[in-house]
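Q: Given only this backbone (294 positions), what sequence would you predict?
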């Protein structure tokens, strides 16, 4: 069966054009737009750390722009999901997708899996906090399994939240998996349930990076587009931090020169994964926070 990548209607294998919208029926493994409503779910890489942690269903409503760029909104299902409507900004190709998601209010999970706002947590720790804080940006990347299904990984980079009196609240890195399924081009639709396919296929997800040859496990700081990575690594160099980088299009970690893997526009250039020596992690997080103060 072939499926129209625009409206989702299915046709026999010998069909060539969608009778509804006139779109060519391309290879079922390819997609030429992400416009429309997607139903998905995400989970944590180590759910055993959160009692009762379950995959969180969500709905993406996306609008297509130029040169693979898209924007949109995201809502997460109660009770596990964060309240409010978040914003989406990203890029996609025929087989891959990457985007940033940010929710209006930041939450953290209690040990029983329930949520509290960052403001509630900070006040509970005895600090002042006059207003709710936005969530940290969450970076998603994925691969299309076919024209209607995508899966991949997400990451929240470590950061420090400034508190009164010159103190800081350190927030660790968080990672996990996600998948989504195309539902309809009707942006007003509000589907429930799904995705109908299995949550994710671990065999298709990236494997953990091995320790470096010297036996020291460098700490993963996250993935960044080429432009952001270049600015960050220049600051790491100025601070004499020990770091390594890994480009999405190369299985081998690389030291310098960094310029060899940063060509192209940020939306189409490979994402750059950054690692730092464990003794330099605290300083690296401090430098990252200087660019992302709340």
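A: Predicted residues:
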């Amino acid at each position: 069966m072939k499926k129209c990548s625009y409206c989702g209607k299915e046709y026999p294998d010998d069909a060539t054009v969608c009778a509804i919208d006139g779109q060519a029926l391309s290879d079922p493994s390819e997609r030429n737009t992400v416009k429309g409503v997607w139903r998905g779910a995400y989970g944590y890489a180590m759910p055993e750390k959160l009692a009762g942690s379950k995959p969180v269903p969500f709905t993406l409503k996306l609008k297509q722009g130029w040169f693979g760029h898209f924007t949109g909104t995201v809502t997460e299902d109660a009770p596990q999901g964060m309240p409010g409507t978040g914003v989406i900004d990203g890029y996609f190709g025929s087989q891959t997708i990457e985007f940033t998601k940010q929710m209006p209010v930041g939450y953290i999970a209690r040990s029983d899996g329930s949520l509290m706002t960052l403001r509630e947590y900070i006040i509970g720790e005895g600090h002042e906090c006059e207003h709710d804080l936005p969530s940290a940006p969450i970076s998603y990347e994925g691969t299309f399994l076919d024209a209607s299904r995508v899966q991949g990984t997400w990451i929240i980079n470590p950061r420090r939240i400034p508190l009164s009196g010159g103190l800081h609240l350190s927030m660790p890195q968080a990672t996990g998996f996600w998948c989504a399924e195309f539902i309809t081009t009707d942006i007003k639709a509000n589907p429930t349930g799904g995705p109908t396919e299995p949550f994710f296929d671990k065999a298709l997800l990236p494997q953990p990076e091995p320790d470096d040859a010297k036996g020291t496990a460098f700490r993963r700081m996250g993935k960044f587009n080429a432009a952001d990575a270049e600015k960050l690594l220049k600051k790491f160099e100025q601070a004499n931090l020990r770091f390594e980088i890994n480009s999405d299009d190369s299985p081998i970690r690389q030291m310098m020169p960094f310029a060899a893997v940063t060509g192209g526009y940020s939306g189409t250039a490979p994402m750059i994964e950054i690692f730092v020596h464990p003794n330099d992690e605290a300083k690296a997080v401090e430098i990252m926070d200087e660019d992302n103060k709340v």
